[in-house]
Amino acid sequence: MRAAALGVGLMMGGAALSQTQNSVSPDEARAIAKDAFIYAYPMLFNYKTLYEQVVDPASKSYVGGFGRFRNYSQPYGPENKEIVTPNNDTPYSWAWLDLRREPWVLTVPEVPDNRYYVFQWIDLFTYNFAYVGSRTTGNGAGHYLFAGPNWKGKTPEGIDKVFRSETDLVVTLGRTALNGPADVKNVQAVQKGYKLTPLSAFEHTAPPPAVPKPDFPKWDEAKATSIDFIAYLNFLLTFTQPPAPSETELLARFAKIGIAPGKPFNAAALPADTRAAIEAGVADGKAALADAEKHTTSSFNLFGSREALKDDYTTRAVAAAMGIYGNTKEEAVYVGTRVDGDHQQLVGSQPYVLHFDKKDLPPAKFFWSMTMYDLPARHLVPNPIKRYSIGDRTQGLKYNADGSLDIYVQHASPGAGKEANWLPAPPGPYTMIMRIYGPGQAVLDGAWKFPEPKKE
After folding, report:
1. Residue 2: alpha-carbon gap to chain centroid
2. Residue closest to 451 by CA, chosen among 439, 438, 434, 437
3. Cα separation of 317 and 289, whole Å?
4. Could you write out the DSSP letters of every residue in 199-214?
5. pLDDT reading at 80 higher than 50
6. Which of these, 143, 92, 80, 98, lies nearest to 119 by C-alpha position?
7. E strand or H helix at 288, and its extent?
């Protein structure tokens, strides 16, 4: 069935919806809407990225459609605002695949052993369902096949591994380590070897019959975070069939307020008390999400597969709100803080120092880096030395005589003797996030702790 466009969905189906919602009390509708909004939240903002990168040619982040890589080789800067909490260590390689017609093949070149790279694969739910790269498949050349939920073929010759997605639309976020501006050409050479090929082209056979082009609804964030989130969700659910067995009862409950794959949604046609209840439920969902964000200081268990997250939809939503497309903890761990040792909000006008004893330096197989973000936007911070992150690969970083390390965090320069270890901050509130690539066991088992910022 071809999914209905959102614009059509907002104008149709009133009678059917009214009949459905008449059997739901306002209290039940409110409770369902709260849970459904939290369930949908990461899918909505995943769709925002999809729309900007695949559907809207006027978008700065447009990649050119499905099945195409857009490689970035320059470090991210404050002018890049496509996603929140971007990393500044591993330039991205973005691509989206539509797996309805046939699987696709990712080809990677041989990557030098001393260069970290990874392709993280994310489905529409924002679950990390597959990894290709230094940690999981090594740095050798290879061909990896990605198939949707309804593909029933056998592993083709020449394919190193097959990965299956729960959803027909998927995104890959590739990262290739960049060792400073002088390394850009080397990163570009690696990225040229990243290829995406439909399976039929890979095997030199005739392609399957074409599939209908989806009528992608225009992204409107105000609508997507209102009662009309239901229309977006109904569209997205058409690419998630068949549903996960663990969600059968959940989706049956959601159906009581008009949530179903491809179903039109017209909020204006709802009974007044039902509409008010759903709107209140959306507000409840937003409040619950905001509260959960306040109590989240680490990415440790935020990102992963469905199996790893155990259908914890609040955690999935927090992950999308705080840094959508974060890595599974075995790949990279994100830790940090927005408050000092007195639980006060960090602000750039107050100088802080982060001290690491030699034995407590971040344990990383590949490397570690700490990045500064302003609040509430969570974007990189402009500064006179154009340093947006600091880590073990920062040129000129100075360790103390005993092997310990001090990092100075503030808006104004800490002075010539300390500037090598300065992480510039905005004048106002901010948050710091450390990324540990290939985290050691001390990180994974919780023995290693991020240090508290101390006032200078």
Report:
1. 27
2. 434
3. 7
4. HHHHHT-PPPPP-PPP
5. yes
6. 92
7. helix 272-294
3 state SS for 381-403: CCCCCCCCEEECCCCCCCCCCCC
Tens digits of per-residue pLDDT, 423-449? 999 999 999 999 999 999 999 998 999
Give the CATH number of domain 1-282. Answer: 2.60.40.1610
* Bridge partners (DSSP) listed for residue 298: 335
- φ/ψ of residue 152, rounded to 5: -125, 20
Q: What is the dihedral of CA 177, 181, 185, 188, to 10 degrees?
A: 40
Domain 331-455, architecture per CATH: Sandwich (2.60)
CA 143, 141, 166, 3 torsion-angle sign: negative
Name the nearest CA neighbour of 298 among 331, 333, 328, 324: 333
C-alpha 440/C-alpha 309 separation (Å) is 21
Which pLDDT value is given to residue 401?
Answer: 97
**Domain residue spans in the chain?**
1-282, 331-455
Q: Is 115 helix (H, G, I), strand (E, B) or coil?
A: coil
